[in-house]
Design a protein that fits this description.
elongated; two-stranded antiparallel sheet; 4 helices; alpha+beta; 142 residues
Length: 142
């Protein structure tokens, strides 16, 4: 995935570069002379609520899944783990794509409770009896 260009989310859903807002600042933490002069930290903002790229059902799903991370319908991702601005931009794009893929994924199918088969229950009980007898045989007889 490149730092510039559209971000693929799923099959036909792609977020164009025009919907992304970038901000750059100096990275925190230790460094050297380089860290004081270069704005390598990348901050990526994407308006989930107002995006025309996301179909309505996916947008609703994403808004519900990301409600704790959104500020006025906008999600912001900050990447500053690399010394290069380009690599931080790529990392932010990858994180946004992964986050949106997870948020727009359909909910898992409901679990249908099943009952163990009669044979399985009998084998379990037989195994328990066998273990019990084995352990009882190890005990000292007074």
């Amino acid at each position: 995935m490149s730092a510039t260009g559209p971000i693929p989310i799923s099959g036909s859903v792609v977020i164009p570069e025009t919907e992304l807002r970038w901000r750059f600042s100096r990275s925190s933490g230790p460094g050297g002379q380089h860290v004081n002069t270069s704005a390598t930290a990348a901050e990526l903002s994407f308006d989930v609520a107002g995006s025309p790229s996301l179909p309505d059902p996916l947008r609703e799903r994403a808004l519900k899944a990301l409600e704790n991370r959104l500020v006025d319908g906008v999600i912001t991702i900050r990447a500053e783990e690399y010394r290069s601005q380009l690599r931080n931009r790529e990392a932010a794009c990858e994180r946004l794509a992964a986050l949106l893929r997870e948020a727009t994924a359909p909910p898992p199918r409901k679990r249908r409770p099943t009952k163990p088969s009669r044979g399985m229950v009998e084998r379990r009980l037989q195994n328990k009896r066998h273990r019990s007898e084995l352990k009882a045989a190890r005990r000292r007889i007074w």
